DNA sequence: TGGGCTTACGTGTTACGTAACGATC
DNA sequence: GATCGTTACGTAACACGTAAGCCCA
């Protein structure tokens, strides 16, 4: 017995016992329904309908009973479908995101402003941590989304969507010798002690160190902090020059500091959003992704979600090689 | 959504969330269940089970709801299946059979003796009539079964099962000149007036007349009756010689008559059982067929029932040509 | 003769089994 | 390293659409 057969059965019963009309209503062929009805009757070893020749002219006693039960079945089936749709479209609950201080402080507020207006019932739980901690929370399914930067390896069960790019900015006090230079090189930076983000554990390779090493230089990192504002404080106090995400530096607010973009001497960083492959995206989650990474079309998102084995490999490779990133938008500056 | 998927779902839920065990219980492959579960979850856009890596370790909130609904669905489905099975296995009700006097009187009593013991609750409604009347009742679905003999054409919507064969017997009073003969020929019979069954209307050709005509003789049929006992009475009263079904003549009970089998000079007759193609056989009907025509195996019966177009043609042809009849058993003599 | 159901047939889809792979304890 | 789930792939079954056939009003 197939659900489709029950759908056909009810359609016939609801259309004056006309197979032709039932077929029209269901946008399918009349012989198809005819055949499935006969298969159903044959499986049940019962004539559900009374026939006059080939024409259906009535419902048998058993047929009534069967039709009633079939209605119940379809009703339950629809309910099952609705359960998940409603859940997927729910606008309340808890939406948890693990992210880094920089993203939480400088990239997310603008996004959440819109998002919260759309979903006022939704409690947003923003968890801060290192990339390691974020990854761990994601793997334990303690959070729905993770947002971070860096080349950390996430594993096969996690979907990783590149969202935007950003450059670093070198910060130093107004009276620092670097302020006299038109153009700053890696050699210049290597001369001074550096305060920046920590290279975040064994799973991640530091693209900053890499860039220095490539030209046979060794950066003198004297202090690291996860919080861009902490880094700025240490720079102000003369510990060294700071290297932070460009969006964490605002010439207007940080008037006592000078900032030089490193876009010509250091590689760009990519901020990505990740979640467990085996989690279904509720509507608000999709909306959030759209707010946070508007360049990702529905089709692209769907490709990330339903990637089969081969395309998954391709995607992983292209992400690995940052092939996608060339087309990624730069982060738009925005301050509260 | 497929019913099969719901069955798999429940099996997983009922087997400690083990896909492997569910597969064993259902005698199917483990990858098959795994895949269908993922298809179901994907269609519903919901994770029914909570996973630890690939292992299922729990049921999600929505999953509980879905599983409960799925149980209801399968329960209703089983009920639908039971409805018809119960009906098919019902042992009470009305079982109507239209037949001829000869069958009712001489062939059926033995069968009904057993059958009635098995189905004491079943009211058997035996209707007597001419072949024409029997056919008409069958076509109007006034009776479940028809049992008769003769070459009557039944039409495409009726299933006709050959049951057994019988010969005719020539009857005459003890002092009749035929009693002096060792062997009786058609020529001998043609010399005397004959009392026999009527040739039953335009739809049927009389095999008796045919046999005479083939050797350029014309039988002198002076009297016809549907009832073998009536025929015997007329024979006793000198209206002529009788030709009746062999099973209607009992040397012990009809001591005043002599009977000669015509098996060498007249063709055998076949008694068949017929019913509408669009009627499903209840269990007691199948049992009746088995009692009445024990040589028909379940497989053969099923072939008669589910014959497709080609085999239907073949069957019709083989019945038409009496190809089957060579293997049909002769009627076993039996008197009350 | 037209409307309605069935039969016939080709085709694209899919369920499922086997085998290989992968992860997890 | 054993157990359990997933991926891959071939095959057989099946649903469904088109077209033709059949029957009844």
How would you describe the overall organization of this protein?
The structure is a homodimer of 336-residue chains. Chain A is α/β, with parallel strands linked by helices. Chain A has three domains: 85 residues, Winged helix-like DNA-binding domain superfamily/Winged helix DNA-binding domain (Arc Repressor Mutant, subunit A); 136 residues, Periplasmic binding protein-like II (D-Maltodextrin-Binding Protein, domain 2, 3-Layer(aba) Sandwich), CATH 3.40.190; 93 residues, Periplasmic binding protein-like II (D-Maltodextrin-Binding Protein, domain 2, 3-Layer(aba) Sandwich). The first copy, chain A, has a five-stranded mixed beta sheet with strand order 4-3-5-12-6, sandwiched between helices. In chain A, helix 1 packs across helix 3, helix 1 packs across helix 4 and helix 5 crosses helix 10. The longest helix of chain A is centred in the N-terminal third of the chain and has 28 residues. The termini of chain A are far apart. Chains A and B meet through helix 3 and helix 4 of A and helix 3 and helix 4 of B. The first copy, chain A, binds a DNA duplex (25 and 25 nucleotides) through helix 3. Chains A, B: InterPro entries: CysB_PBP2 (IPR037423), LysR_HTH_N (IPR000847), LysR_subst-bd (IPR005119), WH-like_DNA-bd_sf (IPR036388), WH_DNA-bd_sf (IPR036390). Chains A, B: This is HTH-type transcriptional regulator CysB. Chains A, B: Pfam families: HTH_1, LysR_substrate.
CATH H-level superfamily title of the largest domain in chain A: Periplasmic binding protein-like II
Kindly state the mean pLDDT of chain A as a whole number?
A: 84
| Residue fraction in strands of chain A | 15-25%
Helix content of chain A: 40-55%
Largest sheet of chain A: 5 strands, mixed
CATH topology of the largest domain in chain A: D-Maltodextrin-Binding Protein, domain 2
| Total number of distinct structural domains of chain A | 3
User: What is the approximate shape of chain A?
Assistant: rod-shaped
Class derived from helix and strand content of chain A:
alpha/beta
Question: What would CATH call the class of the largest domain in chain A?
Answer: Alpha Beta
Strand order across the largest sheet of chain A: 4-3-5-12-6
- Which two chains touch over the largest interface? A-B, 32 and 33 residues
Number of helices of chain A: 12
The arrangement of helices and strands of chain A along the chain is HHHEEHEHEHEEEHEHEHEEEHHH
Note poorly predicted spans of chain A. 307-324
Do you know the CATH architecture of the largest domain in chain A?
3-Layer(aba) Sandwich
Oligomer: homodimer
> What is the CA–CA distance across the termini of chain A?
62 Å
Q: Find the count of extended strands of chain A (DSSP E, 2+ residues).
A: 12
Radius of gyration of chain A: 30 Å
Keywords (chains A, B): DNA-binding, Transcription, Transcription regulation
InterPro entries (chains A, B): CysB_PBP2, LysR_HTH_N, LysR_subst-bd, WH-like_DNA-bd_sf, WH_DNA-bd_sf
Domain HTH lysR-type (chains A, B): 1-59
Pfam family, one (chains A, B): LysR_substrate
